[in-house]
Amino acid sequence: MAYWTDVGSSTIKRLHLNTSKEELLMNGCIADSTPDGIALDIHSRLLFYTDTGKKVIGVTSLDISYHATLISKGLDQPRAIAADPGRGYIYWSDWGLQSSIKKARMDGSGQQVVVNTGIGHWPNGLTLDAYGQVLYWCDARADSINSVDLVLLRTTVVHRKKGSHFFGITHLGDDLFFSDWTKR
Known about the structure:
Blueprint: E1 2-6, E2 11-16, E3 21-27, E4 35-41, E5 46-51, E6 56-61, E7 67-71, E8 78-84, E9 89-94, E10 100-105, E11 112-115, E12 123-129, E13 134-139, E14 144-149, E15 154-160, E16 166-172, E17 175-180
Antiparallel strand pairs: 1-2, 2-3, 4-5, 5-6, 6-7, 8-9, 9-10, 10-11, 12-13, 13-14, 14-15, 16-17
């Protein structure tokens, strides 16, 4: 399956890769809804999402039988989200007045700031190296890709290129893959 958000139609969808059948998982046509980031926990069969318009973080089961708002306080413009099922956490970026990266337990409790300094106001994509306990994010305003060691809470600029607009990021093994809107 491939999962994605469509901010234009305020929906979360998936595609069965073997049949090319598209399914609507969540229709956010409620006023001000803008589902943005998603993260899967394939073991628990849960999809976590951010909704920038409604300023919430929610969860839905992949069979759509369960849906809940996990976090509705302390959010301004939640964007990207990553899940760490092994340790029981979700991480998200927030573009708000005080841009930050935060974490909470997968039930929404125990909200904590992970990084709130050195962020250029547009922290986009997140990807988690759960084994190395490193969280990476794109910062479109700072033209950089950054990381934070989740044990030492030490941040590092991994890559910077002036004029870039880094947006999405993921990793496989030791490699990072990212998108850049200016380079298309």
